[in-house]
Amino acid sequence: MSTTDKAAGRGASAPGPRQEDAPTPTAGVTRRRLLGTAGAAGAVGLVAGGGAGAAVAAGTRDDPAALTTVGSAHVPFEGARQAGIVQPAQACGHLAAFDLVAGADRRSAAALLRRWSDAVREMTASGRPSTPAAYDDQVADDAGPSSLTVTFGFGRSFFGRTGLNAELPAALAPLPDFPSDHLDPKRSNGDLWVQVGADDALVAFHALRVLQKAAAGAATVRWQMNGFNRTPGATDRPRTARNLMGQIDGTNNPKPSDADFDRRIFVPASGSPDWMAGGSYAVVRRIRMLLDSWDHLSVAEQERVVGRRKSDGAPLSGGVETTPVQLDKVNPDRSLAIAGDAHIRLAAPASNSGAAMLRRAFSYHDGIGTDGTPDAGLLFVAWQADPMTGFVPVQRKLDGADGLSRFLRHEASGLFAVPGGVGKGEYVGQRLLEG
């Protein structure tokens, strides 16, 4: 998929499953001590919440924190929408899919989601619990929450496994087959999906391990992928991130300040099914970058393929990084300033009847592949109110026709329904599982 320019209310819930339904206690699941100085003086660090989306415009934080305050950054778990969608992508990320074990039903799935929600509620808290940790392995001791977010979604197969086919969203239809895909089914789809992000690698790893242990007896890991981004404070000022091709990536992302942002990214309160109100749909793609081939191009050739200058991200039609792209601009020789097969031309909403999505990706590098080239690229996550009007038309346009597609290989894919957020004492998916 694109690597540069692609573009809540909750109804009343029935009481949740009894705590004794969970095989492992959840009270005080885990907390880390805040960083030494940050615990005392850094409480005013990066406090993120419902308004944190304003920082998404360029995919970076508005005010880079000093390293001593990174640990104190806190994103609340509870809210009208799940965390990990509008917040800037963190320095470390894990994507994982789980399949329910044989014999698991709606009741056991509800108990699992309650355990997971209780665990994340503790791990993302800004203070320390007064009770011992049930799943704590002390990996993240001495660290604060470090902007930790955990986001949960349901795959299409989940509904048949739990007898909830009547609640299957129409927007969760299987993604079409794209001719250039090379998908590995073992690393695609899944009953449940989890996205973990944090600005500290140990905090992110610890959260993933807690979820894996809490799933014992109810679900097993189907696949897991690990990613990274630039560390907060690593640049002189907030900058749009670069991908592993060296390109500035995320300039033309939809912004929460856009008048139509919510309409494009989140399911409306009047949407169907009603348990998805305030939620979103996540398209997940593992996109390998053919870096050895890409690196053989000159910088000028790379810029022509993308449609932007590599040095500063400015469109080849002129201006600076944030200057709107002029698709009709021509050079003195009457050639198009933005080539006909340039990535930003084919990915632009103007080229796709206004289709857009919010991209929130992590880079990955898993060593050298069996072909002797880097197994590296992008863990692409695209958010939209309906993937059939967001991701699908854009990817159809890009597939094969995009000059950049010659240097990309889509190796895994998934589509997940991500419900809205939770209130105090609720768990993710409660309206679905108890409706």
TrEMBL record:
<feature type="region of interest" description="Disordered">
    <location>
        <begin position="1"/>
        <end position="31"/>
    </location>
</feature>
<dbReference type="InterPro" id="IPR011008">
    <property type="entry name" value="Dimeric_a/b-barrel"/>
</dbReference>
<dbReference type="GO" id="GO:0004601">
    <property type="term" value="F:peroxidase activity"/>
</dbReference>
<dbReference type="InterPro" id="IPR006314">
    <property type="entry name" value="Dyp_peroxidase"/>
</dbReference>
<dbReference type="InterPro" id="IPR006311">
    <property type="entry name" value="TAT_signal"/>
</dbReference>
<dbReference type="Pfam" id="PF04261">
    <property type="entry name" value="Dyp_perox_N"/>
</dbReference>
<feature type="domain" description="Dyp-type peroxidase N-terminal">
    <location>
        <begin position="82"/>
        <end position="229"/>
    </location>
</feature>
<comment type="similarity">
    <text>Belongs to the DyP-type peroxidase family.</text>
</comment>
<dbReference type="GO" id="GO:0033212">
    <property type="term" value="P:iron import into cell"/>
</dbReference>
<feature type="domain" description="Dyp-type peroxidase C-terminal">
    <location>
        <begin position="240"/>
        <end position="422"/>
    </location>
</feature>
<dbReference type="Pfam" id="PF20628">
    <property type="entry name" value="Dyp_perox_C"/>
</dbReference>
<protein>
    <recommendedName>
        <fullName>Deferrochelatase</fullName>
        <ecNumber>1.11.1.-</ecNumber>
    </recommendedName>
</protein>
<dbReference type="InterPro" id="IPR048328">
    <property type="entry name" value="Dyp_perox_C"/>
</dbReference>
<dbReference type="GO" id="GO:0046872">
    <property type="term" value="F:metal ion binding"/>
</dbReference>
<dbReference type="GO" id="GO:0020037">
    <property type="term" value="F:heme binding"/>
</dbReference>
<keyword id="KW-0349">Heme</keyword>
<dbReference type="InterPro" id="IPR048327">
    <property type="entry name" value="Dyp_perox_N"/>
</dbReference>
<keyword id="KW-0479">Metal-binding</keyword>
<keyword id="KW-0575">Peroxidase</keyword>
<keyword id="KW-0456">Lyase</keyword>
<comment type="function">
    <text>Involved in the recovery of exogenous heme iron. Extracts iron from heme while preserving the protoporphyrin ring intact.</text>
</comment>
<keyword id="KW-0560">Oxidoreductase</keyword>
<dbReference type="GO" id="GO:0005829">
    <property type="term" value="C:cytosol"/>
</dbReference>
<dbReference type="GO" id="GO:0030313">
    <property type="term" value="C:cell envelope"/>
</dbReference>
<keyword id="KW-0732">Signal</keyword>
<dbReference type="GO" id="GO:0004325">
    <property type="term" value="F:ferrochelatase activity"/>
</dbReference>
<dbReference type="InterPro" id="IPR006313">
    <property type="entry name" value="EfeB/EfeN"/>
</dbReference>
<keyword id="KW-0408">Iron</keyword>
